[in-house]
Amino acid sequence: xxxxxxxxxxxxxxxxxxxxxxxxxxxxxxxxxxxxxxxxxxxxxxxxxxxxxxxxxxxxxxxxxxxxxxxxxxxxxxxxxxxxxxxxxxxxxxxxxxxxxxxxxxxxxxxxxxxxxxxxxxxxxxxxxxxxxxxxxxxxxxx
Length: 143
Fold this sequence. Notes:
There is one protein chain. The chain is mainly alpha-helical. 76% of the residues lie in helices and 0% in strands. The chain is built from seven helices and no strands. The chain has helices spanning 3-11, 19-41, 46-57, 61-67, 76-113, 121-127, 129-141. Helix 1 packs antiparallel against helix 2 and helix 5 packs antiparallel against helix 6. The longest helix is centred in the middle third of the chain and has 38 residues, at 76-113. It is elongated. The two termini are 54 Å apart.
């Protein structure tokens, strides 16, 4: 078995055997061997011609993707759970930021401005858009 055949068989080893896979592998091997023969006619050594043919062929993963069964990375429940977790994280993070703004308002702003107006409310409203957007995203994709 030549180097080209080994390369192609190794590249397709993780795909289930099927007639389509075998046909494609034979076609790729034939095309690469023809390219090697053409390069050798131009004066390259067999090893250099094989290397150049493999490199020029490019990424074989795109071709492999046609034969792989689609893997469902996440089920619908997992996606929904992840969106809900994102909402929870956004809500918890916003509460922490609002608590920091409230503390800053009490200990710094009130002493500098000498007023009782709750200035932390304005940036808090802006911070609340984060969990609101995550909530609407979760509700939009929830069934």
